[in-house]
Design goal:
By secondary structure, the chain is an alpha+beta fold. Helices cover 35% and strands 23% of the residues. The chain is globular and about 50 Å long.
Length: 220
């Protein structure tokens, strides 16, 4: 049984089946951070909400999914929301770790091929990462999510970017990984956003990149 009756718009329900491009892994990382999958009885629903100023990014996700329905405006929260009803799509996302309460109950870790690690990490940072300027010359950058995923992220960033392990804060299932030394943040910023000309197929959230823009000079 499918839930086609709940959906009258076109949708690529196989969007995450192949997992053979950087866009696939970017959006998986993003949904692991910021997506919500709900299942009850015959209802299967994927929902993603972003601030209204990030509408273009949510439109890019809608386009990736081949979904024709417009975004919803949540005026009281100044947000836009994408809601997709699909048993086939949600079941696949379950397999990839996008499950209810994914930040606290744990989830199956997707096996991320090395060649797609950059796209996956950028997607997760765009969804649930944070960066801010803490002094005239100082920045802080961090990731947040499920405990095992943050440990994986810590090791991958050490290997791929060459940064020492960041500060790891265990918050009872959920965890935070934080980098505060300027040279570490600069290296991470350049790795995440400084080489877009080499990675044209990987989306990015403009708001997150803008915070780190001053650190990208000379990144080419």
């Amino acid at each position: 049984m499918t839930d086609m009756s709940a959906r009258t718009r076109n949708l690529n329900e196989l969007a995450f089946d192949a997992m053979d491009t950087e866009a696939h892994w970017y959006w998986l990382g993003f949904l692991l951070a910021d997506g919500s999958v709900f299942h009850r009885r015959c209802e299967w629903r994927l929902a993603v909400s972003l601030r209204e100023s990030d509408r273009d990014h949510l439109e890019a996700l809608r386009e990736f999914l081949g979904y024709e329905a417009p975004l919803e405006l949540v005026s009281r929260a100044a947000q836009v929301r994408l809601v997709v009803y699909s048993m086939r799509l949600c079941r696949r996302l379950f397999e990839l770790g996008v499950v209810p309460r994914k930040s606290f109950d744990g989830h199956p870790m997707p096996v991320v091929p090395n060649r797609f690690a950059f796209a996956f990490v950028r997607g997760h940072f765009d969804g649930n990462g944070h960066a801010c300027k803490v002094s005239p010359n100082g920045y802080k950058l961090g990731f947040a999510g499920q405990h095992r995923l943050m440990r994986w992220m810590q090791e991958r960033l050490r290997h791929l970017v060459g940064v020492p392990p960041g500060l790891f804060y265990d918050k009872g299932g959920c965890a935070e990984l934080v980098y505060g030394r300027r040279h570490q943040v600069r290296a991470l910023a350049r790795w995440l956003y400084g080489f877009d000309h080499d990675k044209p197929g990987v989306p990015h959230l403009a708001r997150k990149r803008a915070v780190l823009e001053p650190l990208l000079e000379g990144a080419a």
